[in-house]
Amino acid sequence: MALLGLRLCFLLFGFTVALAQAQTQETQRHYVVDIQILDPERQGEYIPTLLKMILNASKAPNETIDFIYSDRRFSQARWFAEVERNNINSVIWTVTTKEREALLRPIRVPIFKGLLGHRIFVIRKEDQPLFSDITNIKDLSTLRAGQGIHWPDTDIMEANGLPVILGAGAENLYKMLKVKRFDYFPRGILELMPEDKHLKANEVVPEEDILLSYPSAMYFFVNKRNTELAERLEKGWEIIYKNGEFDRFFFSHPRVVEALAELKKHKRRIIRLENPYLPAETPLERTEYWLDVTKY
Is the overall model pTM greater than 0.90, yes or no? Predict the structure, then answer.
């Protein structure tokens, strides 16, 4: 009788352990997000790293976050169409406009604290004297800018009366600048360091006297129907802002360090443009979201 009771105890114990293991397995969740990066080796870069920080901050216990990388290189227009059509866990990132916010749901926290709206000109070195006496938009309108087809910045410059010559992509525009198709190529201060090879290959340099400035924000975007993913991103952003994790990441990242160092090299005059394409919902009142470049 005692032996039977012992066997029953062992059976019950085994059943309890198996049940607990099954429940643990059931509670584990594998959360997968599609992102627009083509090469998994680039996952250590700024935006994929930040996105994982945000998702990790809002994840549930026993949950793991994984990315699925793109198997092809799409244009931004194609990415928007893909995410708009498919209500899956896809995240893309781009500069916001009224048109883009009508298509997808924006997560309204600027990924780069608005730095992409502050632009340094890339010029031919011998042309620096052309820019040294420019103090306003009217002066600048006597010169031609190079810009990409379908870039939001192109529309902003044209809306402010600045002549623009269009080209297909940044690499091609650097070549066009070298052969004098236009006079200057405005680049976000965060774009200069990654594009250093293009500056050297085309024998062009950052201009020293002017900073073109307008309100602009790069956001994460998701499908409008994917409320769960949108709320997770909003919650994660709030957490890493409140605990200081984002600022520590932002101000220590090599791209930001290099950009702010470039700003400090020269005391540039700021020429401000209007951005008529900026949505009214842009949180300009949240001063912690935007970097004050006048301090640099």
Answer: no
